[in-house]
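Q: I'm building a small set of examples for a reading group on sequence design. Run inverse folding on the following structure and report the sequence directly after it, with nothing in between.
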């Protein structure tokens, strides 16, 4: 029984373990997917987005952190398909307006909530 308890963190990864586990799975998905499928970028990204939207509703609990795996899969795939030309174009985009809009939305949410926001719930993503 002691031997089984040593594997519990692998079945329910937390902190950085879930990210390392997800990187291994994402890399395996890329490695074992045929290149003919990976060439269809739009279809692959649409499938990733659908999985991202459906994953939180799967009743899996914290088992292998599957919800996080599929939730962050589109971000991994965008990084996989990103080229150096796209990255240089991305750096030229002015992000000041979206940042201002985000700060205004966040501050209005905090003000409307009456400052009754628990910082631990925010940090844990609740």
């Amino acid at each position: 029984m002691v031997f089984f308890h040593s594997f519990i963190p692998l079945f329910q990864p937390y902190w950085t373990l879930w990210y390392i586990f997800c990187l291994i799975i994402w890399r395996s998905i890329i490695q074992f997917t045929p290149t003919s499928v990976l060439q269809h970028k739009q279809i692959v990204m649409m499938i990733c987005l659908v999985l991202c939207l459906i994953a939180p509703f799967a009743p899996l609990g914290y088992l292998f952190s599957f919800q996080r795996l599929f939730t962050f899969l589109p971000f991994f795939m965008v990084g996989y398909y990103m080229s150096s030309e796209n990255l240089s174009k991305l750096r030229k985009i002015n992000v000041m307006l979206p940042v201002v809009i985000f700060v205004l939305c966040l501050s209005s949410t905090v003000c409307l909530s009456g400052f009754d926001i628990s910082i631990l719930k925010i940090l844990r993503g609740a």
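The CA atoms of residues 83 and 89 lie 10 Å apart.
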